[in-house]
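Task: sequence design from structure.
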């Protein structure tokens, strides 16, 4: 049985594998923990490490700034094109994933659609995707992350996100996946020249490096991992686990909001 700490301060450790191997819950680089604990947060602590690391040159961005919806990624707003949901949602989730991780694929194709329908589309949750390619165990993870990031620059991240996971079994074993990635770009109806220019830009690789470093600083050591309002949920957990975590946080935030209004 999974036990939860206070509603907004939860770590659920799902990895059970050795370094560089895959467990039944996620793809991992380091030995996992098997205990539950609260993240010790300061106002600018782990969230700043995860999110603001992505915008070192932009200065002073807030999580809301970084989570603008339906806009392409830009240098000053690096998560804009990879975020969905209402800016007024009471809960924000930062998913840290690797496009080549099979457990990330399982989550993306089975659990995420239900979260999208029940929580994101209804205004309860705002969701942002952070690249965390595990390059030491997945040869094509970085190339796939580059494609996803560059698709976001054309406001097509979620279409390419779905295509990368749907066809992971095709491109993951390829020695040279670039040609196949271009076919995905065609399917997503985005510009090939713009995609190629972006993928070949040193700035793209630097952005991905910063994202991976930010994910590590947030406490993530496996994929998928989810930073949720001060806590870290790890592994491709099933929908009942996400429902329990998200509902508990929403209830707590709603209760606090009502108390403030009653004063």
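Answer:
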């Amino acid at each position: 049985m999974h036990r939860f700490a206070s509603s907004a301060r939860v770590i659920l450790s799902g990895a059970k594998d050795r370094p560089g191997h895959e467990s039944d819950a996620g793809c991992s680089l380091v030995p996992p923990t098997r205990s539950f604990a609260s993240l010790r947060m300061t106002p600018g602590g782990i969230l700043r490490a995860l999110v603001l690391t992505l915008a070192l040159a932009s200065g002073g961005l807030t999580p809301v700034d970084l989570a603008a919806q339906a806009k392409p990624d830009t240098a000053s707003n690096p998560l804009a094109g990879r975020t969905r949901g209402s800016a007024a949602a009471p809960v924000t989730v930062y998913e840290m994933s690797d496009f080549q991780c099979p457990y990330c694929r399982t989550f993306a194709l089975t659990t995420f659609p239900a979260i999208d329908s029940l929580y994101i589309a209804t205004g309860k949750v705002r969701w942002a995707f952070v690249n965390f390619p595990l390059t030491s165990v997945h040869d094509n993870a970085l190339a796939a992350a580059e494609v996803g990031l560059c698709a976001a620059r054309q406001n097509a991240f979620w279409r390419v996100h779905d295509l990368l996971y749907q066809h992971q079994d095709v491109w993951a074993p390829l020695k040279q996946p670039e040609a196949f990635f271009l076919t995905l770009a065609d399917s997503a109806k985005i510009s090939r020249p713009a995609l190629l220019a972006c993928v070949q830009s040193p700035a793209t690789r630097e952005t991905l490096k910063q994202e991976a470093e930010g994910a590590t600083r947030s406490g993530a050591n496996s994929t998928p991992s989810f930073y949720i309002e001060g806590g870290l949920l790890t592994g491709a957990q099933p929908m009942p686990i996400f429902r329990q975590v998200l509902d508990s946080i929403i209830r707590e935030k709603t209760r606090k909001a009502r108390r403030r209004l009653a004063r």
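The radius of gyration is 18 Å.
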